[in-house]
Amino acid sequence: MDGFEMEGMTYLAIAYLGMILGLGIWTWTVVTRSRNLQLRIKALEDSLGLDDFESDIITSEVNDTDKK
Fold first, then answer.
1. What span, in angstroms and rounded, lies between the C-alpha atoms of 37 and 54?
2. pLDDT at site 1
3. For residue 44, which of 18, 38, 57, 68 sits 20 to 30 Å off, Cα-Cα?
4. DSSP per residue over 41-55, as a string?
């Protein structure tokens, strides 16, 4: 039976392209979810009426100690 046999370099090139494509899709998904989460956090902060400094725990603690 004469089948299609890939040479080693062809197989390796296709494998690398698949890996790069997979990493690209994964990166796109992470960036999209991060942007979506950031927009949701911003909307929540806006609905609670928080300023930028009040919404960050570390800076709000520093601001509280400065006021004392």
1. 19
2. 43
3. 68
4. HHHHHHHHT--HHHH
Domain ranges of the chain: 31-68
Single out the residue of 58, 37, 55, 57 nearest to residue 47, CA to CA: 55
Q: Is the pTM of this model over 0.85?
A: no
Q: Which residues of 11-43 are buried (b: 16+ CB within 10 A; e: fewer)?
A: eeeeeeeeeeeeeeeeeeeeeeeeeeeeeeeee
Question: Is the sign of the CA dihedral 22, 25, 29, 35 positive or negative?
Answer: positive
Q: Are 41 and 47 in contact (CB under 8 A)?
A: no
Question: What is the per-residue pLDDT across 4-63, written as a single tens digit (0 to 9) for each?
Answer: 677 888 999 999 999 999 999 999 999 999 999 999 988 888 888 877 665 566 666 655
